Structures are given as C-alpha cells and as structure tokens.
Amino acid sequence: MTERVREILSGYGADNPGTLTNLARLLNTGRLAGTGKLVILPVDQGFEHGPARSFAPNPPAYDPRYHFELAIEAGCNAYAAPLGFLEAGARDYAGEIPLILKASNHDVTGSEADPSQALTATVEDALRLGCAAVGFTIYPGSTHRMELYEQVRALAAEAKRHGLAVVIWSYPRGSGLSKEGERAIDITGYAAQIAAQLGAHIIKVKLPTAHIEQDAARKVYEQEKIPIDSLTDRVRHIVQCAFNGRRIVIFSGGEFETDESLIGEVRAIQEGGGFGSIVGRNSFQRPRTEAIRLLTSIMNIYGPLRGSA
Amino acid sequence: MTERVREILSGYGADNPGTLTNLARLLNTGRLAGTGKLVILPVDQGFEHGPARSFAPNPPAYDPRYHFELAIEAGCNAYAAPLGFLEAGARDYAGEIPLILKASNHDVTGSEADPSQALTATVEDALRLGCAAVGFTIYPGSTHRMELYEQVRALAAEAKRHGLAVVIWSYPRGSGLSKEGERAIDITGYAAQIAAQLGAHIIKVKLPTAHIEQDAARKVYEQEKIPIDSLTDRVRHIVQCAFNGRRIVIFSGGEFETDESLIGEVRAIQEGGGFGSIVGRNSFQRPRTEAIRLLTSIMNIYGPLRGSA
Amino acid sequence: MTERVREILSGYGADNPGTLTNLARLLNTGRLAGTGKLVILPVDQGFEHGPARSFAPNPPAYDPRYHFELAIEAGCNAYAAPLGFLEAGARDYAGEIPLILKASNHDVTGSEADPSQALTATVEDALRLGCAAVGFTIYPGSTHRMELYEQVRALAAEAKRHGLAVVIWSYPRGSGLSKEGERAIDITGYAAQIAAQLGAHIIKVKLPTAHIEQDAARKVYEQEKIPIDSLTDRVRHIVQCAFNGRRIVIFSGGEFETDESLIGEVRAIQEGGGFGSIVGRNSFQRPRTEAIRLLTSIMNIYGPLRGSA
Amino acid sequence: MTERVREILSGYGADNPGTLTNLARLLNTGRLAGTGKLVILPVDQGFEHGPARSFAPNPPAYDPRYHFELAIEAGCNAYAAPLGFLEAGARDYAGEIPLILKASNHDVTGSEADPSQALTATVEDALRLGCAAVGFTIYPGSTHRMELYEQVRALAAEAKRHGLAVVIWSYPRGSGLSKEGERAIDITGYAAQIAAQLGAHIIKVKLPTAHIEQDAARKVYEQEKIPIDSLTDRVRHIVQCAFNGRRIVIFSGGEFETDESLIGEVRAIQEGGGFGSIVGRNSFQRPRTEAIRLLTSIMNIYGPLRGSA
Amino acid sequence: MTERVREILSGYGADNPGTLTNLARLLNTGRLAGTGKLVILPVDQGFEHGPARSFAPNPPAYDPRYHFELAIEAGCNAYAAPLGFLEAGARDYAGEIPLILKASNHDVTGSEADPSQALTATVEDALRLGCAAVGFTIYPGSTHRMELYEQVRALAAEAKRHGLAVVIWSYPRGSGLSKEGERAIDITGYAAQIAAQLGAHIIKVKLPTAHIEQDAARKVYEQEKIPIDSLTDRVRHIVQCAFNGRRIVIFSGGEFETDESLIGEVRAIQEGGGFGSIVGRNSFQRPRTEAIRLLTSIMNIYGPLRGSA
Q: Does the active-site annotation cover A225?
C-alpha cells in the first residue's frame, strides 16, 4: 500500500472497511497500481448509443468478452459496463480485474430535451457478480435530475452498507443548459460538486471548456480571477470543486479525437492534478493492438511506477 | 447434451445452475431438441389485441388447452402465455412442455402514442406454475421505456435468483420512432442490444427491414459498409448486436403473411445464424392440422436432428 | 441544564427522550450553550448554488474539513451540510460538534418557476454519521410543495422514531408568489407555521420584510394592527407564528450584507425573541479569522454566558 | 478533543462515525471528560438481586430519578440501567448524561448453577431513549454462554449500524468454574478477551484475584512468568488481554468493601492502565452526599483534569 | 490467472462470479499467488483457548494489529480471525490481505464432552469489513453437530448469495469419538467429506493419524487396501475424501511441534496433493522474525513461483 493510496483513502473516513477495500482494489490494480491514478475502460455505449454506432468500427467489440480482455491486457484499473455485458464475462474473468456495474442507463431510442436514466441493475447483482463498485449517471440540468439524485440516494446507501464503492457519471444535460453549457467550466465544476455531495467515492466528468454558462457564476469567476484559460487550469479547478482533492475525480474526452489531442488532454489532467481517465470509444473502436498502444501511452503519462500489480 | 447446446450455455456464465437447467430444458425439448434452435408458440394476443381478433378465425383457440396441445403436438420448444392462459392448463399438461410466463402485458382498450406494459404476474406465479422462464415486453422508443426497463430490473433479478430464465420481447414503438422505424435495422439491432444489456437470456425481436431510422446510425452503417441488403444479412447483424451470438435471439414475422413468405423468412433466419422463431398468429389462427403442418415445415428448416427428446 | 433550555424542551412533549437529548445537545454546545440561543453554520451552497459561487471567494472552503473546523473553532451550536460534506469529515471530527444532515437538496442547473427538492440522504445515514438532526427544505408557494411536505412526513416520522431532531428550512418560493412575496411578513409567518405544523423541532426562515403578499392576510394585519414596522416587531411576529415561542425558530439574512447590517439584524432577532441565526455565506466566504470574529460578535449579542462548552 | 481521547478512538477503525461520536460522548462527559478514564454508575441490581437487597440500605434509591441525579451530580461519564429505570427518567434528564441501556438481565427468583440472561430491551429502545450505548451481560463458564454470545451478535450488529456503542459485562460464572475461579486472573483475562472478540467497544470485568483456575493456563502463567502478584499487575494483564489497550476495559470491585479498599483498588486500576471503574452498590447504597464524596475521591485518582465540560 | 488457479476454480461451477472472485483473491495473494497453494494465518485462539495461553509466549501478539502485519509481511494468502480482531484492524489494513471472518466460536470456560459453537458474527459484518470469506467450525462426533450443520446452512447460503466464499473448520470431537479417534484417518476423511457436502469452498482439517476409529470403516480400509501408512498417503486420501481434489482442503498440525516436524508435515501435504497449511500457534507464538522465517520455509516447499503478487 503506497503512501499516496493511503492518503487518498484517508478522505473516505465515513466509509466502512469493506468500501475502503474495494477502493483500494481499484487503486491497486493494473499498470497504475499504487500511483493514485486510474484509467478505466467503460463500455456502456451499446446501451447508450446503440450497438452498430458503438461496435461496427471494430467488430470484435460486439463480443462481451472482448472488453474484459482489452481492459486486462491494457492494465486498466477497472472495467465498467451494464448488467448484460458484465454477466456475459464475470465468470470467465473472475478475479482478473475490478468490475464496476453501471446500474443505470439511458438509450437514444427516443429523443428528449431532458434525459433521464433507468435503474437497470441492483446492489445484489453487483455482489453476485463480484463487482468492486456500482455506478450511476446523473444529468444536472435535466428536469429529471431530482429523480436521478434520488436513485443514487437509495442505491448508494445500500451499496455502501454492503462494502461497495459508488461511482457517479455526472453529465450536465437538459433544458436548463445551452449545448455549449454542457461542458462549461462552471457547470462541470458544479456537476462534480453535486456528485460529491451525493456521496460518490469516484466522480466522472467530461473535460470542461472555458465557456461559462451561468451569469451568477461568471461574476464570481471574473471577480476571483479563477484561472480557466488552459485545460490544466480547468482540471485543477474541477479537482478543487470535488472537495479540494479529497474525492477521486476522473475525466473523459469527447467523441472524435486524434490521438495527439487525447494525449494532450491526458497531460493536462496529469498536470492539473486529476486522478485519471476513463477511455471508452477512443479505445474499443480501434483494433486491439492499437488500443493497447494508446492506453499504454496514456498510462505512461500518469504513471511513475511500472510493472506493478 | 449436444455440443451446440453446451456452447450456447457457456455464454451464460453468471447464471446459476438452476437458470442453466431451465435454459437447457428449452433447448432440449421438442423436435429441435439439441440443435440449438427454438420454435416457440406465444399466445398473448388475447390480452394484447382482444379475443375475437385473435381467436375467431379458429374458434377452438378460444380454449386455453388448445394452445398447450398445439405446442406439444407440433414439438415446439416452449409455450409462452399470460398468467390466465397458463393457469388454465398448467396442471393438465404439467411436465409436457416448458412454459414461459409472459409476466407483463399491454392491451388496446386505449390508444396511446407511447405504449407501456403492466406487470401481470409474479416470479412466484412462474414457480408455482412450473415455468422455465418469465417474459417481459419492453418498448424502446416509447416515453415509458425507462419504467419498462425498471420492471425488468426488479423481476429479472428475482427470477434469476430463483433459477428461472428471462425472455425479453424487445419491440421498438412510441413517439421516438417513425412507423417505419419500428422495424428498421438500426433500431432492431439497438432493441436486441438493450434487451441483452438488461440481462435477458433469450431475446425476441421482429425481423428487421433495410430501413435505417437514425441519422447518427446511418452514418456508421454506410461508413462501415455493414451488409443489410438481404434478410439473411440483417439477421446476421442482429445476432451480432445480441452479444455476437452469445445471447439467444429469436425472431417473429409480421401479421399477415403467406406461408411462402414465412418459410422464406425462416430460411433467412437459419442462414443468418438466428436461433429460431416465435410463431403465434400464423399458427393458432388456422386449423390445427394446418398449423402443425406449417410448424413442421419451419422446424424442418432449422433442424438437422429428428426425433430427439 | 439551564432553566431556559429546560423551558424550551418542555415544548416538545410528544417527542421521545432520544429526540430531546439531541435537541439538548444542539442547545448545550458551543459558546451559546445553555442560553437557549443558537448559531448554526450551514454549508449546502456547494450543492444549491455551485462550488465556485460558494467557495471561490475563500478557497480553503472548498475543503470539507474547513467547515467542521470553522464551526468548532467559532463555537457554533451545530454544523449543517449535505451527505457528501458530512461523510468527508464525520470520522475526523466525531464528537466535536452536533451535525445536522441536510437530507434534501436543490441545485440551479435548471431554472424553474416552481422549485422542488430531491431527497439526498436517509435517516440511517444520519445515524451512522452520528448526527443530532436531519434537515429538509420546503418551498411554500411552489406547485411542488405538497410533494415536499410529504417528503418531510415520511422521513421526519422515521427520524423521530430513531431519536433524531428535525429541522425544516422553510423558504417561500414558486409561481404562487411574487418575488417580493418570498420574504413578505405574512408569507414568512405562514412558512414558519407550516414547518411547525409539519412537526419540525427547529424552523429556519429568512428575515421578513414589511411587505404583505396576500390580500386576505393584509386585511387582518391592518385590522388587528399587528406591529410589523421594525425588524424586531417582525421577528416577534414570526416567533408568535411558530407556536408562540414553543418552537425554535432561527433566521438567516440575505446574500450580500455588510457586517453592520448583519449585526443589526442579529440585534433585532435577539430583541424580537428569536432563537438565533444560521450564518452561511456571510461566514465561510471570508478568511477564517474574520469569520471567527464575525461569528463571535454575533454570539456576543445572543449570549449572556461566556466560555461555556 | 484531547489527544488521549483521539488515541483511544483510533482503535475503533471499523466503526462508523456515529458509534465514534457516542464513544466520544462517553469519554468527554463528566469530571473525567477528556482524560480517557471513565467512572460509570450502573444500577441493574433491582433486577439482578431484588429491590430490597439493593435499595433498602438507602431508601431514596428506590426512586429511579435518584440515580440519574447521583450520576449527574457526581460527574460520572455515564449511567447504565435496564429499560424500566431509564424510561422512568430519560425525559426529565434528557441530555444531561450519556445513558447505557442494559439490554439483557438476569434475576435470582430461581437459582441455577448455570445462569443465563434474558434480552429485555431493543436497539430501537436505546435510540428512542437517547442512549449512547447498549449493554449486555455474558457468563463465560455457564452452559448457556453460547446463547449469550449469540444474543450479543444479533443486537450488537444492529446497534453498530445505528451508531450506538456496545458495552459487555463479562462475568465468568457457571458450572464450568469453581467459585474462586469466577475472579481468577486467567478466567478474567479470558472473559475480557471474549468480550473484545465479540466486538465490544467497552468491556466491564471484575477485579481479578491471583488465583489461576485452569491447569492449561497455569502452565503458561508460570512458564512466561506473567506478573500477577499485585492488583496493579493483574489490571495491567487484563488490559493486555483486551487487545493490548485498544479496547476500553473498566473494572468493578466486589460487594462489601470498605472505602479504603475501594480506593486502593482504584489506585491499582489507575496504575495498571485500566480505563476506569464502574461503581454501583458502593455508591447508591449509602446516603447521597457520602456517595458523591466517594465518587469524587475515585475521580480524583483517575483525573488529572478538573472542571472540564 | 494461472492455469492451476483456473482449474481449481472450475470445481465451483454452482457459485456465482462474486464467490469465484473472492476465491481467486485468496488464491492470487501473497507469496504463493497463482500456485494453487495456500498458507493462511488463523488467530482465533484468544477466543478458543484464552489470551494468556495464546499470546503470552509472544506478548506483541496481544495487539490485534500484530497479526495483520505478520500475515502481510509473511506473504500469507489470507488472515482469519473472529469479529473483534478483524474490527480492530480492518480499516488500517484495508485492501492489504484477504480476510476470513471466523463467524462461529467456542471457548473453554466450561468443559463439556460435546462441544458446540456460538455464531458470533454476521454475513453483513463480513461485507462491511471487506472480507473475502466467512468461516465456521463444525464438530463431527459431538451431540451438537446437527445444530452446527444448521448454522452453516443458514449463513453459508446468505454468504454465497452475497458473493463470499465459505470456509469450514471440520474438527471431529465429542462423545461419539475416542480421544484418538479425533484425528483418525477414517474420521478425518469423514469430516472433510461432511464439510464438502455442507457446501464449503475451503475445508480445514487436522493432519490425520493412521488410527482407524470405526469398525465399519476399518473393514473397508483393509479390504480395499487404502494406503494410509505414510502421512503423504493419508493427505492424499483426505484430498480424495474432499471430492477427489475438487474442493480446496488445507491442513493444520498440532499444538507443540518442532520446526523439523512441522516442515516434514508440510512436505507430506505437498507430496500428497494437499492445498496448503493453516499455521496459527506455530507462527504467532514466536518472535516475528522467526515466524516470518518459518512461514517462508513452509511457502518455499509449496511454491514454485516466487516474488509474485
């Protein structure tokens, strides 16, 4: 157990040793084990965007076993997916990588200004599948956000009592926000704060832009001269918004990125004190060897330690 | 136990032996026993469309015993129906054919753009009736889809804990889709994926057309040159969308079909690697002997094995 | 146990000794211990207004430990916050200050005429974190108020059975009121009454203006010559509206105040027979030493007793 | 919060902040607040020995309020009693002293070689009465001891989940032991260990004699030259047996003692590193002023701090 | 995941992936990670024999933290202890070594011909403490054995549903057996079989002697010429009795052993195909460096792999 991992765990004093054990598993697995950094492979796009859009660019990815193997081979800290994908591999890969059960999901078979999420799995599912954590998505900005916060409340309390960790994907969306506002710095910070206040152990947000969405916020950003010009500055601010570094906050980039821009973003996350990346489409939508190469490049930026695990 | 059945069961590693036993029952019953193919008789149209529309064309079908006997005599793998129909025959035909309790239903006594389903039976009902599986319908595309996914969540977890299999009828409908879109290839693939991610063991979809409903999907289908011109191609794609063949996916045709078109569809399902057919109105709305003859023709296409079980 | 605290507790005859014990803890902690007066530090603005707007003016306040320490050092009676902030310090500061778990929250990521609140924590959370009370916000005037009253009903009953105290933040807002009406004397008195009738042990309202919102009320205020000209008069009236002094009612000021105006308000609260202040942004948005100085000034007005604890 | 209290709390890392808060309350109340030492008044003798034997020597002690007042006035850390006694004063003295609900009891209306205990109160009772802890008696040596350990198992888990502390009175008795053996050094150490292993936060044992009861133990005491000649040595050994000082262990003396012998015992407890005394009959069976004087003398031995809290 | 571990896990096909994950954790931790062999540190002797008899030979072992550190430093696969000992370190060492909660215990404060066990912890305790398994002791031969089997039945089912592994200490004792019979080859084989039939994932027995206790068994051992002369033969027979190698069975030696005899026993376990050792008193009753040395010697016999983990 490295000093850094111990330091991170010390922020979770209200949690029982079971939850700490699962947080430690997430932090002590893979190529970044012990560094306090995480790279997580999430594959919920089959549910969220549809299978062809998600997997046709790299057809082996239609197979649920593919993602377990990709995450293990690349040395990720964890693999996150909905119930069906985890059920389809949990026995074959038992004990090989920490699993995060994405217990709420949304699809795009309808289109609504204000998205919501359906609960699609239970805490007992997470236990029987051997997961280290359960995950939920919330949509700050949606008119349904209150229901989503209450979903988290019910299941997170149950998860914590049973020694699981809780991950919140905090994605601002909905009629309360402009399109640009979904990734605005003020809104992203707010989204991170809400997830933290709801009791998340790990928070996932998108990398923010320098746009400021809300007038009341802009006044403060300008008055207090909060630095948000560079991506590094913005990452630093988001970490601050997530309890000043006492909650693990990880970032995803956008949909279509060059490897250069992605690597640049990872550097900014590392320099800004972020805890890591969640890399989905940018990894599983390319051939496996290329994906491994990319994930390795990313981990090399985060990780002073090598070969651990 | 044939190699093929063993191979299919290997995809369900997270399920307990009770559920595997029930899946094996479904796969090892009837004329197709052991082939890995299924032909299922579903009779929920009395609830879904009304009795006269469903049974007047063949009045013996008003009698619940009729369908048990049809399914048994034709050598189907299973018979699926709502609570009432199963209660009306479960004792008389106990042990003669695997039963699937259709535990959610919709009627057309009202008409709404966005359909939903009522839970109409319990897991305990399925156990006391000796069923092998419980079934639910979801409507991707409906504004009520989130509630439907949550219905599945609660009951599927309970069903699996009690060793039952879970069948999901995944029928795109609702204001999120055009009429044509309900059977579009992209939407059907998406519907299969959603059912699989929700943890279904068996997925039932309608045979898709070559229509593409969503722009974001069309881009991918064109870019990746996904073959969807022939029905065989489309079946193959749907199987891919259902965890690349690691989930049982079966198909139904449309409402009014000639026997020739139906047989043609079955050939396409077989050639495209589908797991079988669910044949309702096309079988029970004609005289029994004709129905048997049709079902036999269908099974002859699927089944290299004879007289097993 | 001072006579005054005993007198206050005598108003809560239907509550069990567990709840009385927790009320006594709130009244017997800090510099005002035993006086019957309370100064509470509430920090839910990170959730309610966003982190930058809340904490950027005094960046150490991003850290959840900051607020525990501020409340303890200043000698507050209690510290109130949402789940995440309490979880982040409850072990480290266990037993040092009574905690109030703010179990419902609202954010401003959407903007709606009629605000609501999401339940964000449970009574079991309050017990495992060692809290003395749970708190909820209601919005009299909102179309959602009935749901909010029902939230209180369910959780307050559970809280009381487990020996916790119940605090209600009663904030008139919504399409039923004019902007001015939100702080009108009649509406504020009404809001205090509703909270008291819902079974709150402690009621938090904003300091009212002399505006009268409702015609039916104005008639009475004029007829009965209810004195509402001075702030002291208005505080006295609110205390009257909260069961004539038999429910603890505390006040907050507005957002941007000079220290002078704030101190003037506290004098009015004290002279009007109010039970104390809840001071959030006016304390944690300035450097710690200045915050301590301000809180000390406030407590000096309320408190004839010194140095107790 | 003194360093010593913080150090003691650090031994309870598996407990939630609620339980830590209640342990802190016990350690931070009364004349010994902050010293890490406890003097607790227990009055379960009315149940255990009968009222006349217990209270006739000092008739005001028949009144349940007497004991609350005695404990408060003397500056005890806590008052422990069965359900009835606590119910009879919990409202009147709410918030004045931490309460320990003795949730199991034994009487002497029958006489048996192997005593047992009846569960006489619930965790919910403890919460509604505002208790800081629940207490149980176990009888190592009794043929009923297994049932008693299982009583603790069920209720202690529930108590801990609700943020309460757990006190075990560990009294060796029964046909497995000689009369002398009930206070033997080996058996007392064993009794402390069992209570600790059952998950007690606070353990109460009787001051041990130098007698060794079990042959298998004697061999070790002699071989390892464990010092047990003086009472101080024996206290030190018991503290060691209770997880080497990482569990709070407090002591009671015998039935008929002179004040001198009692004071001598307290000195030995203090010198041996014990955490304090539980003083029942020696305090409440004498006039109140004398009892206060005696308890004050005892506290003076334990307590370097004065006048705190 | 080594082939050997995969092979071992394949024997547990009825268990859910959660339980497999925890079995994998036990097999993939420490110096023997991946070899399919286990060395476990069990410390329940404080409860079972008393603290002085257990810890006085090496006084640092009175401290619960000592055993966590010993197990971690020595590279054991797991640490097993009762509730109290695990609670006292589970937070400080969270994630450093798999824990086995010994959920039933016996003491020797009474002496009975027919021993029993008290349930002393719950499955929820195991989850909140982050344990990989729960453990129980059964006493084949005791008149209380039926109650003990029923203890296992209730809790093992709950443990498995929640993804935990189940360890059974199967210790023949009681009036049904002679003293010599407690370690007889027939009785030990029988004890292993009973534990396996009760659904244990891991079985712990004592190394058997060549004595045969039961006449009916002797007849078969002689007739079938079952080789039991050497310890290696006897280990091989016990492994056979535990489902022919498809259940993990580990061995303990006796109380007073020389290192030479202990090492000899380990060689026999290794040669006979046993899965490993559980080493309690022989490790923690000597100074830490000597204990590490001994455990290392033992692991060197079992383990072809080095430095893994």
A: no
